[in-house]
Amino acid sequence: MIKENDRVLLIGEKREFFVRAGEGDLSTDKGIIKLADLTGLDTGDIVKTHLGVSFKIRIPRPVDFFSYAKRTGAPMLPKDIGTVIAYTGMNKKDRVLDAGTGSGVAAIFFGSVAGFVDTYEIREEFSKICAKNIADAGLENVRVNAGDFLSVESDEKYDVIHLDMQIEKEHVKHAYGLLKTGGYLATYTPFLEQTFNVMDAAEDLFSEVVCHELIGRELSRTKRGTRPSTRVCHTGYITICRK
């Protein structure tokens, strides 16, 4: 059930609105919706504008925050985040550390899967945006920290560490020390030179080091026929290292 200040998606014909339930109005070309009318409703319910045009309510999922949350830069794509979750076996028992969080999109996905997530962003202004996005997602098991990953100290080890940042060899070594035996380090790197930094540093520390190039293509279907989309299919590299 939707409460005041909850984020809500309103789905109309060929348009969507990412709004917050509570005070104020949403003005559209199909009429005005009073946002207070959203409280007490649930996903699948219908709300109408003052002109009688219907919008269906949808409770946002992590992929919706990828599309609509305030950004500090280009976040990882859902397919890339999914690769990290799949190859580390991330689950509700896990304690996860996410560094280089940016706007917090990956942390929102991880928080929806893992038991607890510590996310670190060295830029304080980005950390504040991340904290707002995490709050909008309603994730009480994600803790946002403004700070340098290399300064992280913890008596309790992590099951998974994810790094999406400019990674040097000292970051890999520090991650190794913070991981449980059997735990995973996953790194996202857009360039081969950064990827080689990770692989070279991890080779002497971790029992398994595997790099995946991330490629995906959407299909475009028209009356003329079906073919792969012309969008760029390569996004980056995920390196998975097991302690």
Molecular structure report:
This protein is an alpha/beta fold and 243 residues long. The chain folds into two domains: 7-58, Vcp-like ATPase, Chain A, domain 2; 64-242, Vaccinia Virus protein VP39 (Rossmann fold), CATH 3.40.50. 25% of the residues lie in helices and 35% in strands. The chain is built from six helices and 15 strands. The chain has helices spanning 62-68, 78-88, 105-111, 124-136, 169-178, 192-203, and strands at residues 7-12, 15-20, 25-28, 31-34, 46-48, 54-58, 95-99, 116-121, 142-146, 158-163, 179-189, 208-215, 219-221, 226-228, 234-242. The strands form four sheets. It has a seven-stranded mixed beta sheet with strand order 9-8-7-10-11-15-12, sandwiched between helices. The longest helix is centred in the middle third of the chain and has 13 residues, at 124-136. It is globular and about 65 Å long. GO terms for molecular function: tRNA (adenine(58)-N1)-methyltransferase activity.
Overall CATH class of the largest domain: Alpha Beta
Question: Over the alpha carbons, how many angstroms does the gyration radius reach?
Answer: 20 Å
Pairing-aware structural class of the strands and helices? alpha/beta
Shape field: globular
User: Which superfamily, in CATH terms, is the homologous superfamily of the largest domain?
Assistant: Vaccinia Virus protein VP39
The main sheet comes to: 7 strands, mixed
> Which segments are poorly predicted (pLDDT under 50) over 5 or more consecutive residues?
none
Mean pLDDT: 94
Any guess at the CATH architecture of the largest domain? 3-Layer(aba) Sandwich
Helicity level, as a percent range? 10-25%
Strand portion, in percent?
Answer: 25-35%
Give the strand order, joined by hyphens, for the main sheet: 9-8-7-10-11-15-12
Write down the secondary-structure element order: EEEEEEHHEHEHEEHEHEEEE
Helix count, DSSP H or I runs of 4 or more residues: 6
What is the CATH topology assignment of the largest domain? Rossmann fold
**Strands, count:** 15
The termini sit apart by: 42 Å
Domains (count): 2
InterPro entries: Methyltranfer_dom (IPR025714), SAM-dependent_MTases_sf (IPR029063), tRNA_MeTrfase_Gcd14 (IPR014816)
Keywords: Methyltransferase, Transferase
Domain Methyltransferase: 91-214
GO molecular function: tRNA (adenine(58)-N1)-methyltransferase activity
